[in-house]
């Protein structure tokens, strides 16, 4: 179903915000979020965080205002890595190729290698491709997906790996043992579809690893993640129970890096009780 959007309007303050974040100064269209991805319109504004609202039904946080969908490729294209990341104080893309190998990739690798010693693996939102490079070196057959043609081409040239400008919808069913999506789920207008598509492309017994922010109450969110326009949905533990499709089972919620967690989901589970505090 995805989030429900109101009519498209201009918003000069948001245009200025994007310009301050490294994007070209121009007029864009924006929409108010009027319905949660879970289907509920029981949304409550949060005075302490004016950019967000709380869904009373599933307990997640939703942005109040988002970019109109036609502008999303611009938001997450080359400018996201070449200008935006630098504007907010992060290293440029190919510096990140080196630094990510030391501060976050070892933690992601450990989570996967505890469960798999090889197999076919697909990463959604592979960015510069360094994580895939390390996974290939550990014995996985890897594929990467990127939203932007130029980014996919640059990462493919840098790594020599199969990194495509493609979507999960174009991937054959039951093709992979492992799916990884780091810092992707919270940016999506339809996270439920992402989960369903992920289960479809996994083989029976495969696992998906989604790094995102998971919180027990909106006040527990790290302030850095409560940002205009980017983090569309922030999930409570309770909302995850609604998010996982019938073909999947939530196995664990594990701390990773920078206040985030890995949501680990098993494909085609036996029935059983879900323990939202950790491993089943």
Could you please describe the fold and organization of this structure?
With 280 residues, the protein is of the alpha/beta class. The chain has a single domain, classed as Vaccinia Virus protein VP39 (Rossmann fold, 3-Layer(aba) Sandwich), CATH 3.40.50.150. The protein contains 9 helices and 15 strands. The strands form 3 sheets. Strands 9-8-7-10-11-15-14 form a 7-stranded mixed sheet. The chain has a 5-stranded mixed sheet with strand order 3-4-5-13-12. β3 and β4 (52-55) form a beta hairpin. It is globular, with a radius of gyration of 18 Å. Residues 271-280 have low confidence and may be disordered.
Highlighted features:
alpha/beta; 5-stranded mixed sheet; 7-stranded mixed sheet; 280 residues; disordered C terminus; 15 strands; single chain; Rossmann fold
Q: Helices, strands, pairings?
A:
Blueprint: E1 4-10, H1 12-20, E2 29-35, E3 43-45, E4 52-55, E5 61-63, E6 65-67, H2 72-75, H3 78-87, H4 93-103, H5 105-113, E7 119-124, H6 130-137, E8 140-146, H7 149-159, E9 163-165, E10 176-182, H8 191-201, E11 202-212, E12 214-215, E13 233-236, H9 237-243, E14 248-255, E15 261-267
Parallel strand pairs: 7-8, 7-10, 8-9, 10-11, 12-13
Antiparallel strand pairs: 1-2, 2-6, 3-4, 4-5, 5-13, 11-15, 14-15
């Amino acid at each position: 179903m995805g989030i429900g959007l109101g009519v498209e309007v201009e918003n000069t303050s948001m245009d200025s915000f994007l310009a301050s974040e490294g994007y070209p100064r121009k007029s864009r269209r924006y929409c108010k979020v009027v319905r949660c991805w879970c289907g509920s319109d029981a949304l409550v504004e949060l005075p302490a965080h004016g950019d967000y609202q709380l869904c009373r039904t599933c307990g997640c946080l939703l942005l109040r205002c988002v970019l109109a969908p036609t502008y999303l490729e611009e938001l997450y294209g080359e400018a996201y890595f070449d200008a935006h990341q630098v504007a907010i104080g992060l290293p440029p893309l190919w510096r990140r190729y080196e630094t990510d190998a030391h501060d976050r990739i070892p933690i992601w690798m450990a989570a996967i290698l505890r469960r798999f010693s090889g197999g076919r693996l697909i990463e959604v939102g592979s960015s510069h491709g360094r994580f895939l490079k390390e996974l290939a070196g550990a014995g996985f057959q890897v594929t990467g997906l990127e939203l932007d043609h130029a980014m996919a081409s640059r990462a493919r040239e840098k790594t020599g790996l199969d990194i495509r400008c493609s979507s999960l919808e174009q991937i054959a069913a039951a093709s992979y043992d492992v799916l990884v999506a780091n810092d992707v789920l919270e940016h999506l207008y339809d996270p439920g579809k992402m989960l369903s598509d992920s289960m479809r492309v996994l083989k029976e017994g495969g696992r998906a690893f989604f790094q995102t922010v998971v919180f027990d109450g909106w006040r527990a969110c790290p302030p850095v993640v409560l940002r205009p326009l980017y983090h569309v949905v922030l999930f409570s533990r309770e909302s995850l129970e609604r998010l996982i499709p019938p073909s999947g089972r939530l196995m664990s919620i594990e701390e990773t890096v920078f206040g985030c967690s890995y949501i680990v989901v098993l494909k085609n589970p036996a029935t059983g009780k879900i323990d939202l505090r950790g491993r089943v």
